Amino acid sequence: MPQEVDATRTNADRTPSDLGNKKRALRDLAQGHSGHDDLSRTPLSVLSSDWQELQLLVIKGLSERLSETPTMKKASNIRSDLKKIRQALQELLKLPEITRIDPRSRRRARRDHWKKGFRRADWPESLEQEVRQMRVAFTDRNYSGPSYAYFNSRVMREVSFCGLEMRFNRLIDFTLNCEGIESPCLMDFMDLDRIARFREWYFHDRVGGYAAFRQICAALSKTAIYLEAMGQLKSGYDLDSRNHGAPWRVLTSIGMSKLAEGVQEGKQAKLEDLPLVSPADLMALGYRCQVQLPRTNDGRVPSTRQIFNRRFAGMFYTLGVYTPLRGKNWRNMRWDTNLKQEGTCWRVHFSGMELKNGVNNTELRTYSLLLPLEATPLIEWWREQLRVFVGDDFENITPFVFPMQSTITGDDGDFRWVEMSYKYLLASVDSAARDNIRQGFRPHLIRHCVATHVISSGLMVDIQQAATLLGDSIKTVMDTYFKPDEQNLLNSGYYARLSGYKAGETPTS
Predict the structure, then answer these.
(1) CA–CA separation, 136 vs 145, rounded Å?
(2) Is-contact 326 342, C-beta < 8 A?
(3) If we measure between CA atoms, which residue out of 460, 421, 463 comes closest to residue 443?
(4) Spatial separation of the C-alpha atoms in residues 302 and 309, rounded to whole Å
(5) Could you write out the three-class secondary structure of 346-377?
């Protein structure tokens, strides 16, 4: 069989691995077509079938061989091998040509597909109005409606309520499109049987999502408290009741039990279980990512998207040591607003609602760091990368410092550069860590790494400096981010002093 790239070369010039993959694809095609994988009993004319039909047959044969539905990766590989076989034999067997579809045209054709996701704009107006009223009760310090004493003593930040609203989206999607309720209200979400059906729907064909489901239940718990305060739920429990029969406690326990199930099955990793990495090792990892190509499973040359992802990971691990931001700030950072040049240095600046803790009582909080001169080459390097991947006028193409290339094309046919999604951020950071240091890594973990190193290494005696780096209070840094090696502290402290005592002697101190 001639090769698809060079017709003068044959099977004798193929590698054993390549030849084995081609044979496997033909056997799977025979299995899907004739019910057996004996190539001697399968007519060669099957290759003249329509390409779409051939794809269905080879996937059918692969499924029968594996006795299960193949993964997307396996299905893609087997289709690719069959396509190469057909292209190699096209002239020899006078097969119809496979029309190549331009990827951009295919994505433009599917443009509406990407817009079909349920969005906030699809919420019913009546439900939107209820949520707005709930927002006032939870966030307005001057709220004077029912149960005002309870709500005024537990004022919620605007950014926190925005997160609560986001959790409603999947539940409203389910209620409208699966339950068939045209005008749902908040009381409809209090039906435990409906929540059980939603849980089954939510985890159907889903590997993870346990933490997100717990957050949905937490949002429903807040909703139950609000409805009880408005006199709609009428459960008979006080708003601050912690009785396990209270609706808000029941909803919370549903989310926590599902999260515990994910942890037990090994499908939900805790951030605390990931080992910390020193800033020096993070810097070394970042510099490696700046020059290396990402690894691919089948040995193919990585795509431009994959290379850009790896370059971003290099910037994250190097710049993150100087300014360990939250994931939200990495994704939302903009030129001249959040990252601006001052002389030969650069300043990182966020304020108000751009921060998680944007308002402390009535004081507007800010995070403003003038980065040292050593960080300037990193930012200049990143600007050069943007010129290569985005364009010379990248600041006009996208305002974001760390953009993401969308799968949707604009009117000019080019892929858009948009705000980075959290999934993109997590995948880029985690993939780079697994390829280089053989462990998983999450964007938020860099804050734990920096805080623990700064406080325990003695490089900064004043803990306030660690708090300034993270943009948090001293108490938050010590309670949340500081993770000392407790056994090592004992070994070098108390146990070390005990080992210095001699038998029969009285310790002097």
Answers:
(1) 9
(2) no
(3) 421
(4) 11
(5) EEEEEEHHHCCCCEECCEECEEEEECCHHHHH
- Residues with Cβ within 8 Å of 320's Cβ and at least 6 positions away in sequence, in order, are 282, 286, 446, 450
Spatial contact of 229 and 150, defined as CB atoms under 8 Å apart: yes
Q: What is the pLDDT of residue 157?
A: 81
- Using a CB cutoff of 8 Å and minimum separation of 24, what contacts does 283-286 make? 283/317, 283/318, 283/321, 285/317, 285/432, 285/433, 285/436, 285/437, 286/313, 286/314, 286/315, 286/316, 286/317, 286/318, 286/319, 286/320, 286/321
CA pair distance 46, 346, nearest whole angstrom? 64
The mean pLDDT of 280-299, rounded to a whole number, is 88
Contacts of residue 52, defined as CB under 8 A and 6 or more positions apart, other chains included, come to none
pLDDT (average), residues 430-440? 91
Q: If you write DSSP's letter for every residue of 417-453 in order, what string do you get?
A: EEEPPHHHHHHHHHHHHHHHTSS---TTHHHHHHHHH
Q: Is the pTM of this model over 0.85?
A: no
The per-residue pLDDT for range 406-421, each reduced to its tens digit, is: 877 767 667 889 999 8
- Give me the half-sphere count of Cα atoms (radius 13 Å) on the Cβ side of residue 166: 9
Q: For every residue of 282-316, which 3-state class applies, written as one string? A: HHHHHHHHCCCCCCCCCCCCCCHHHHHHHHHHHHH
Q: What is the chain's mean pLDDT, rounded?
A: 84
At 307-329, the pLDDT tens digits run 999 999 999 999 999 999 999 99
DSSP three-state, residue 482? coil
Q: How far apart are CA 470 and CA 29, in angstroms?
A: 57
- The residue type found at 17 is S
Task: Using the Cα atoms of residue 156, residue 160, residue 162 and residue 168 in order, give the sign of their dihedral.
Answer: negative
